[in-house]
Design brief:
Number of helices: 5
Order of helices and strands: HHHEEHH
Helix content: 55-70%
Structural class: mainly alpha
Largest sheet: 2 strands, antiparallel
Strand content: 5-15%
Distance between the termini: 19 Å
Number of strands: 2
């Protein structure tokens, strides 16, 4: 499933909160790192990549401050809920892709 580590959840929550506070502009890697107590851009990048792999954020390529946080709670589509249930059953990469597509409205 889409279980996050405590640190991943912390990073996601920071990104979500800051993005809302700034009217849709996501924090920079340096700011995310500061919130997580690291100066390493590499470790921030790994964190972002892990969050992206779990479908909870996405990045627009070649674009600064391009992190978007996935909708949650009531915003989740029926298709995404169905895909999540499918992941819980199969856990395969294909179902994860289906869920991510449904989540971002691509399905």
């Amino acid at each position: 499933g889409l279980m996050l580590t405590a640190r991943q959840a912390e990073a996601l929550e920071f990104i979500r909160r800051e993005t809302v506070a700034r009217g849709g502009v996501c924090p920079s890697y340096v700011e995310i790192g500061a919130a997580l107590g690291t100066r390493s851009k590499g470790s921030v990048n790994r964190m972002i990549t892990a969050l992206e792999a779990r479908g909870v954020i996405r990045r627009r390529p070649f674009c600064a401050r391009s992190i978007e946080v996935a909708p949650t709670g009531d915003d989740l589509t029926a298709a995404y809920r169905a895909a999540l249930e499918e992941i819980a059953k199969t856990g395969g990469p294909r179902s994860a892709r289906i869920a991510a597509a449904a989540l971002w409205g691509a399905a």
